[in-house]
Amino acid sequence: MEGLIERAARDLIASKHAIALTGAGISTESGIPDFRGPQGIWTTNKEAEAKAYERYELFLRDPKSYWQEMLGEKGTHGAFYIQVRKVEPNPGHYALAELERLGIVKCVITQNIDGLHRKAGSKSVIEYHGSVHKLRCPSCGSRRGLEEVSLESLPPYCECGGVMKYDVVHFKEPIPLDVMNEAEKEALECDLMLVCGTSAVVYPFASLPRAAKLGRKTSGAIIEINAEPTPLTREGISDYLIQGKTGEVLPQLAEAVRKWKLNRD
Ligand SMILES: [Zn+2]
Questions:
Q1: Would you call 129 a catalytic residue per the annotation?
Q2: pTM listed for this prediction
């Protein structure tokens, strides 16, 4: 374990454009419930799962009902978003923010909708599946903070006249083009990728480590930090796996990089 962290620190220091991908694993350590685990929200509530699959369609068909549901006036989903907005970052989030401050990590691309990377201080964050802190207009693509928009009369409208939804990307909803393009550009440009708390099996997000593997111009590594081996490990997409909790491994990694920088300066 110790050896791999030192190796990863050395690889990070040698990199010119390191980025991090993060998934549910880093959020569950902050107490956010997962969806498909043994006690997951959908494992234990099939009706909620069925509703989640219909949510985007509901927005398109009847945005007022969509908003009533999302705000908890109908159903329970609103309560989940309210709960998520209260959660605090954990040492894994802070370590990635520290690696950005040290000039090592250039960008975090996350599948998580909780906004915890920004809360922890990361500045360059691509929220691939959107955020519970924002609204988005699918017509023009603009986003607004939740606190900037009045939800007294539903549905809320964008300045362009389009109807706004949560920024969160629902099932069957396309990933917003700006986010998809930025993420792909980062994946092709990076010379090192940290894959943290995700098995990267949900497409199109799952294409990012694969694009990095094929597109990279240098010998930089794809490093996994996951509790268990994943398809990325088995398919040889990642160069090595540091097996453990992101909340424990990432702080050790950030510390190793920080020490090296101190010695150098
Ligand atoms: Zn608009």
A1: yes
A2: 0.94
